[in-house]
Amino acid sequence: MSAAPGLAQHAARPTARPRDLLIVDDHPIVLQGFRLLAEEAGIARVHEARDIVAAYRTFHRHRPAVVVTDLSFRDDGLSGLSLIRRIRALEPGARILALSMHRDPVIVARVLECGALGFVLKDAPAASFLDALEAVANGRSYLPHDIAIEIAMLNAGARDLPLANLTSREMQILVLIGKGKSYDEIAEILTLNYRSVVNATAALLCNLCVGSTAELMRIAASQARSLP
User: Fold this and answer.
1) Residue ranges in the chain assigned as alpha helix (H)
2) Which CATH number fits the domain 160-225, given the four candidates 3.20.20.140, 1.10.3720.10, 1.10.10.10, 2.30.30.40?
3) Alpha carbons 180 and 194: distance in angstroms, whole number
4) Whether pLDDT at 177 is above 70
5) Over the stretch 124-142, which tens digit does the pLDDT of each residue have?
């Protein structure tokens, strides 16, 4: 993400800034870029984590004012959703901004469902990231305008879009199936027991109106390919 010409202008706004921030991403270059943006925005302390386990521990220890987290971590599917849920369970008032290269409105809707206040695309201009950070830090929601419209349209026609009716947990399991993960691996990644994964997969077969695991794999693989 490149720094936008208007960065200084945003940093000078007389609005509340978070005193500290946790950034979660498994790419060092991305972490460095967001750290620089946060520091330019006047944030005194920036914590970093490269996986959801380290992120949860860091949040538990430091309780930063805002969490900025990616959704996808290597082969763990949408494990960022689990992190958002766990942080909100620990701290119901936590202010979380999700970021991703993935702009599917179904996924973004699940991000909000899990408790994030905002969402921003990784390839957005620096000024957009700062706008999103400012909004979330002040307890306001933030969505790119076009994605907000897509989510509204999605909600209006949800009955005709099976994926839109899946829960965030079902979406995570679907993506992991598409990545070739076994039930045991999915259970470990999502901290579930084996039977819960089996039952959720059966529910997916029913909800997506498919008659075989092979058909579910095809849908899952298609969904997985759309993720970064």
Assistant:
1) 7-11, 28-40, 52-62, 79-90, 105-114, 126-137, 145-156, 168-178, 183-190, 194-207, 213-225
2) 1.10.10.10
3) 16
4) yes
5) 898 999 999 999 999 999 9
